[in-house]
Design a protein that fits this description.
disordered N terminus, globular, 5-stranded antiparallel β-sheet, 26% strand, alpha+beta, 9 helices, Phosphatase 2c, domain 1, 298 residues
Length: 298
């Protein structure tokens, strides 16, 4: 007997594969550049028969190995979701509980291999999580900690949190159950029918800084930075896999110029103080649709 649900899902996926495209990029923030730190953001994406998955993680800046945890967390999340959607339905509440359980299990396994104690756990695994899961039926935005997401032109910042201390999933490994229920749960921020989704963007909290400088000019150039919607409206970001990173690098580059009048060298700083990472997913235009007139990219 044919499984009608699987058949419909397969046909919808074929449409998804043909009509959705992904663009992503990440750059080091000025604050971390000044103190010779690495980029503590990470991203990962994966396209499957059952789903499209994208994840952005932001490591805690005060921990020495958080960029390692962020990279591991992004990869672990997309691959764990890939395993889950092959066997379970995200509509079930247990799906997201299983996701959390497997993520924590992966952290513990690697922690043991590293020979790290609880302090080592905090040094590696403190990262925020912002993710997108697109199935043939439903699109979910989920996560824990601060960040930004946008869906169908509507932008939603998550955070900031008091004292710049967002919740981290790894805190669950240290939570004393005698204090009460574990508060560090993966949150579902949005849930939309996939057929109604035109664009999605997820990003680290550095995307908030990116939005704040939209009216500023690029360092050393008269061109404005532009609004966040350029990253899902403009074709060029989807035509070159490095174009998002290049644009972020333009926005954040330092320009050195001589001032002949004062006989001094003038430094124009980059505009993004924090590491900035984003993944954009959009529905492809139909043939003959042409360039979106609302896009003023150069």
């Amino acid at each position: 007997m044919i499984d009608l649900f699987k058949l419909v899902s397969f046909l919808h996926y074929k449409a998804m594969q043909q009509h959705f495209e992904v663009a992503a990029g990440s750059i080091l923030g000025q604050n971390h550049r000044r103190v010779s730190q690495n980029n503590q953001d990470a991203w990962a994406s994966l396209a499957l028969e059952q789903a499209m998955i994208a994840v952005v993680c932001d490591g805690c800046g005060s921990r020495p190995n958080s960029e390692v945890g962020a990279q591991f967390g992004a990869q672990l999340t997309v691959h764990t979701l890939a395993q889950l959607v092959a066997a379970e339905r995200p509509e079930d509440e247990l799906f997201w509980q299983m996701l959390k359980k497997r993520l924590l299990g992966g952290m513990q396994t690697l922690q043991k291999r590293l020979g790290a104690d609880s302090q080592g756990l905090l040094d590696y695994w403190l990262f925020t999580l912002m993710g997108c899961l697109v199935t043939p039926e439903t699109t979910w935005i989920f996560g824990l900690g601060d960040g930004v997401f946008a869906i169908n032109e509507q932008i939603h910042p998550i955070g900031p949190f008091a004292n710049n201390t967002p919740p981290y999933l790894a805190y669950s490994l240290l939570w004393d159950t005698e204090k009460g229920p574990d508060p560090f749960q993966i949150q579902i921020y949005a849930q939309h029918p996939t057929e109604q989704v035109q664009s999605v963007l997820i990003g680290s909290d550095g995307v908030g800084d990116l939005m704040d400088v939209a009216e500023n000019c690029l360092p050393g150039r008269p061109e404005p930075v532009g609004p966040l919607n350029q990253f899902w409206r403009c074709d060029r970001y989807f035509q070159n896999p490095d174009q998002v990173r290049r644009r972020l690098a333009q926005i954040n580059r330092e320009v050195i110029r001589p001032d002949w009048h004062t006989r001094q060298v003038r430094k124009i700083p980059g505009l993004l103080p924090d590491d900035t990472t984003l993944i954009s997913i959009r529905r492809k235009r139909t043939e003959g649709g042409g360039k979106d007139a609302r896009c003023n990219c150069r």
